[in-house]
Automatic annotation (TrEMBL):
Pfam families: AAA_22, Phage-MuB_C. GO terms for molecular function: ATP hydrolysis activity; DNA binding. InterPro entries: AAA_22 (IPR049945), B_transposit_C_sf (IPR036733), B_transpositn_C (IPR009084), ExeA_AAA_ATPase_DNA-bind (IPR052026), Lambda_DNA-bd_dom_sf (IPR010982), P-loop_NTPase (IPR027417). It comes from the Bacteria. This is XRE family transcriptional regulator. GO terms for biological process: DNA transposition. Residues 231-308 form the B transposition protein C-terminal domain. The lineage of its organism: Bacteria, Pseudomonadati, Pseudomonadota, Gammaproteobacteria, Enterobacterales. PANTHER family: GENERAL SECRETION PATHWAY PROTEIN A-RELATED (PTHR35894), MU-LIKE PROPHAGE FLUMU DNA TRANSPOSITION PROTEIN B (PTHR35894:SF5). It comes from Gallaecimonas xiamenensis 3-C-1. Residues 101-216 form the ORC1/DEAH AAA+ ATPase domain.
């Protein structure tokens, strides 16, 4: 590539990024995070005042643009949220804990829409905070710090006692609710800390996860260690498989109504991952159909599922 061509490409890349920022489709900080540089570096590159390796950053920006265009122009947009019967039931459990200022447990199979419903409920309520436990975020200190970050407590202390008091002070009087997803990862001490936090602040709380969330409260050492927590759980909701009405609601959101297509979607929803794999299949099927969800047919759905399963 000649010097002139390289300069033209650099100018074009910078102009495209600047146009996206000017249109409000993104911002400098988001672009910086995406390519692994500082916001200041992006700002200076866009202004033409960067003193470092501009070519390296421009190449990263060009790759970012290419990926963004692929996602925008190739990948169909799935329905943002479909209020299935299961989602409506989960809303009920969330709403009860929120209004009654008590603890609910929502547990069951993976891929049936628990997390999606919780995210939507949190989106609709400004005083609901959704956090996710994990193997690295299972202790009292880690889950409290995760909650502090969600509460935008940027100066939260890291020492357990101080952190607990700071989070309690922040939650008091909010009338809010904390939802802990993947709560099956939490250690006993962390669960007890959350129970006490709920009681002291009067907020609602929902523990979500797989069946272990419930079984660890009802079996084994429940009579000794978990009795105090279990006795305070006002509502328990098990979701063990996707409902046929859930599949029909999702199919309708994608513009699918044929009997053959619906039967195939029901079969896919019976597999592990249920609605999650169903939505992934429909998204790929829409790509195979040329991006038009109205033209989705049984052949597209079958081919997409086969491709996702890795079958030749």
């Amino acid at each position: 590539m000649s010097v002139v061509e390289l300069k033209t490409k650099t100018t074009s890349t910078i102009e495209q990024v600047q146009a996206l920022i000017n249109a409000g489709d993104t911002n400098g900080s988001a672009v910086a995070r995406a390519i692994g540089v500082s916001p200041a570096a992006i700002s200076q590159v866009l202004k033409g005042s960067y003193k470092g390796d501009t070519d390296r950053i421009v190449k990263a920006l060009a790759s970012w643009l290419e990926l963004r265009n692929t996602r925008t122009n190739t990948l169909p947009t799935a329905p943002r949220f479909v209020e299935t019967q299961t989602a409506s039931n989960i809303f009920g459990a969330l709403g009860y804990a929120h209004a009654a200022e008590t603890i609910s447990v929502v547990y069951g199979a993976s891929g049936v829409g628990k997390t999606t419903a919780a995210r939507e409920y949190a989106r609709q309520h400004s005083n609901v905070w959704l956090i996710t436990a994990s193997p690295s975020c299972a202790t009292t200190t880690e889950i409290l710090f995760e909650l502090a970050l969600e509460l935008r407590m940027d100066d939260a202390p890291r020492r357990k006692g101080q952190l607990s008091r700071a989070v309690k002070h922040r939650l008091q009087g909010t009338g809010g609710m904390v939802v802990v997803d993947e709560a099956d990862h939490l250690e006993y001490a962390a669960l007890e800390e959350l129970r006490i936090l709920q009681e002291q602040t009067g907020i609602g709380m929902v523990l979500m996860g797989n069946n272990r969330v419930y079984t660890q409260l009802t079996g084994g050492r429940r009579s000794e260690d978990f009795a105090r927590l279990f006795s305070r759980i006002a509502k328990k909701m098990g979701v063990h498989k996707a409902k046929q009405t859930d599949v029909k609601a999702i199919a309708a959101a994608w513009g699918i109504s044929g009997n053959g297509e619906l039967a195939l979607l029901q079969q896919i929803a019976e597999r592990p991952g249920a609605l999650r794999i169903l939505n992934q299949t429909l998204r790929l099927a829409a790509m195979l159909a040329g991006g038009s969800d109205q033209s989705l047919g049984e052949q597209h759905i079958r081919a997409a599922f086969k491709d996702l399963e890795g079958n030749e």
